[in-house]
Amino acid sequence: MDAVADDDPLASTVFADARRRKRLLVAAADGGVVVGFVLLRDLDGAMHIEQLAVAPEWGRQGIGRGLMSAAADLARDSGAATMTLTTFRDVPFNGPFYAALGWRVIPEHALSPGLARVRDDERAVGLDRWPRQAMWSNT
Q1: pTM of the model
Q2: Is the four-CA dihedral 70, 32, 100, 113 of positive or negative sign?
Q3: Is the separation of the CB atoms in 115 and 67 below 8 Å?
Q4: How many other C-beta atoms can be found within 10 angstroms of the C-beta atom of residue 67?
Q5: Where are the beta strands (DSSP E) in the chain?
Q6: From the Swiss-Prot or TrEMBL record, what is one GO molecular function term (predicted)?
Q7: Average pLDDT, the chain
Q8: Lower Cβ count inside 10 Å, N or C end of the chain?
């Protein structure tokens, strides 16, 4: 997993574009310091979680849950009945975290075309060295 942690951060243009499209939610501490974010996009009629991140020193304080709840509100307000994401299956703050929020695994054979492309891209960059899965939830 060190290779994943050492990946280059997303370009600031990705965040600027998501912000402009109202597909970026942030959690900030006192003083405006960003401590977490969720980056979303529309994918096959669902709201797709591109990335959820909380600064490690702010973990286990409900920030991730709060961001996921806000993302569901945004999805619902945008007209999406479902949300999707891909994640590491066994990492505690990944697959088990989403399962605890009620998310369900999507079998590979049932992936939408866009979600199948996401999984293909993940495999192409080597993320499947660790078990991954796609998941969905109602908004």
Answers
A1: 0.88
A2: positive
A3: no
A4: 20
A5: 24-28, 34-43, 46-54, 82-88, 104-106, 132-138
A6: acyltransferase activity, transferring groups other than amino-acyl groups
A7: 91
A8: N
N-term to C-term CA, the chain: 30
Amino acid at 122: E
User: Which two structure tokens, joined as six digits, stand for 125?
Assistant: 């960059």
Structural domain containing residue 82: 2-138
pLDDT at residue 11 in the model: 65
Query: DSSP class of residue 30?
Result: T
Counted domains in the chain: 1
Amino acid residing at 97: F
Buried b (16+ CB within 10 A) or exposed e, 41-60: bebeebbbbbebbbeeebee
Tell me which residue of 66, 69, 74 sits closest to 41, measured CA to CA: 74
CATH number at residue 98: 3.40.630.30
Predicted pLDDT at 92: 85
Centroid of chain to Cα 129: 19
Per residue in 28-87, pLDDT (tens digit) is: 999 999 999 999 999 999 999 999 999 999 999 999 999 999 999 999 999 999 999 999
Question: 86 vs 34, 118, 134, CA distance in Å?
Answer: 23, 8, 4
